[in-house]
Design a protein that fits this description.
about 425 residues; alpha/beta; OB fold (Dihydrolipoamide Acetyltransferase, E2P); about 40% helix
């Protein structure tokens, strides 16, 4: 049994420990191998859990299959002998990440698969935000080579794939660690152009990109090319300048507002803008929270991803939390206020799109909804809608959103039309 763990919050660690204990209870004879971010951040802690046979951090995750199988390759390469023993568990984890690289799984479209899968092209982060454990659990920024990215995209298209999401831990840093000078200079903007120029992908969507990495060239590409989804996610974390400084974020609120306004001006009001917002960072005063709340209200956002601060051992935020914690009750009340703003933003954006003619892609629809003769679809600007008809997944359609999640399907978009538009 392989248990892949997260460690972004204390709750994630707790859930991982509970899952390991549950596996142990249900099958005491099982060989339990724990991997992922918790295994990387606290291998000794994980190894001490009853029933854990092996711990494989992200630094050695590429060798996970060989280690689990105890294969001949693992024996002859010295992997097995390279493990250190902590209690009864063998442990592979270090902070060098010398055995970690990005290859990217082959993506396929079709029944039972994701309609719009993620292609992870970048790993790790070197920003060192004071609240974040990622530099410890994922290492420094590493990029998939451009030729490999293009190969994966074309493989996906060849299986019938239409929409692909480029993702990464710090996506905007793609290419800066590569030997290829063109990748280093051009970065994410250059890679996006290569995908548009050299592949037949119908729609490319970008996942989260840090505010400072939204260059004028990248913004212009999103505005000028309809094959790039009209959807941008910019992590904010806080709208209070003092909190951003304590977080060691590399921008101020006015910088963030400038990027949002540049995107909105270039792409128009159909652009869906999203933001991550954290509540309860150590020392966050009532004045700072109100500053953040009003700043978020002022932005033309379509949705928020909200998180309460979670202290992570080994980060600067851990020490800050010990000195200036924000009371749980206060965090809960502030989260409720931000959640109200989130609901208002989502409702306002959906209402603004009512009756607009939008392109969309049908999704894998839950059986209960299909039984009602309905189909889920996602518009290019990230609105999930329900169509009053039955369609298979991965069909391009044109829709007009109505009240709530309902939308009227105007037409199916033929594959030939898509090809003609790209020519």
């Amino acid at each position: 049994m392989v248990v892949n763990t997260c460690s972004v919050t204390a709750e994630a660690d707790r859930e991982a420990r509970a899952f390991v204990r549950r596996v142990r209870r249900r099958n005491p004879a099982a060989r339990v191998v724990v991997t992922g971010c918790y295994a990387q951040r606290a291998p000794e802690e994980v190894a001490a859990l009853e029933g854990v046979s092996a711990v494989v951090g992200n630094s050695h995750k590429e060798w996970l299959a060989a280690i689990v199988a105890e294969s001949d390759h693992a024996q002859t390469s010295g992997l097995i002998s390279a493990a250190r023993l902590i209690g009864a568990a063998e442990v592979w984890a270090d902070d060098a990440f010398a055995h970690s690289w990005i290859e990217g799984a082959r993506l396929e479209a079709g029944a039972g698969t994701q309609t719009r899968p993620n292609l992870k092209i970048q790993e790790g982060c070197g920003n060192r935000c004071s609240f974040c454990v990622i530099p410890m659990t994922r290492g420094a920024s590493r990029s998939m080579a451009a030729e490999r990215v293009l190969q994966r995209v074309e493989e996906f298209v060849a299986t019938g794939g239409r929409e692909l999401v480029l993702s990464g831990i710090n996506l905007g840093r793609w290419g800066r660690d590569l030997d290829d000078a063109q990748s280093r200079r051009g970065g994410l903007f250059w890679l996006v152009q290569q995908i548009l120029d050299q592949t037949r992908l119908e729609r490319l969507r970008l996942s989260s990109v840090e505010p400072m990495d939204w260059t004028s060239e990248l913004i212009a590409t999103m505005a000028d090319n309809r094959r790039v989804a009209s959807h941008a996610h910019l992590p904010l974390q806080s709208g209070a300048d003092g909190v951003l400084r304590r977080m060691h974020r590399r921008y101020r609120p006015w910088h963030y507002a400038e990027k949002v306004n540049a995107l909105r001006t270039a792409c128009g009001d159909e652009l869906a803008l999203g933001a991550d917002v954290m509540v309860g960072f150590p020392g966050e005063t009532e004045v700072e929270f109100e500053e953040s709340l009003q700043f978020v209200r002022s932005l033309p956002l379509a949705y928020l991803h909200l998180f309460p601060f979670s202290p992570r051992p080994g980060t600067a935020g851990w020490a800050m939390h010990r000195e200036q914690p924000v009371a749980d009750a206060v965090v809960k009340e502030r989260m409720a206020q931000m959640q109200t703003v989130d609901r208002e933003k989502r409702a306002a954006f959906r209402a603004q799109m009512r009756g607009r003619r939008l392109s969309a892609l049908t999704l894998n629809t839950p059986e209960k909804l299909r039984a009602e003769g309905r189909t889920l679809a996602l518009t290019e600007n990230f609105l999930e809608v329900e169509l009053d008809c039955k369609l298979p997944a991965n069909e391009p359609v044109t829709v007009r959103p109505g009240d709530g999640r309902n939308a009227k399907m105007e037409r199916l978009v033929k594959s030939q039309e898509n090809s003609d538009q790209q020519a």
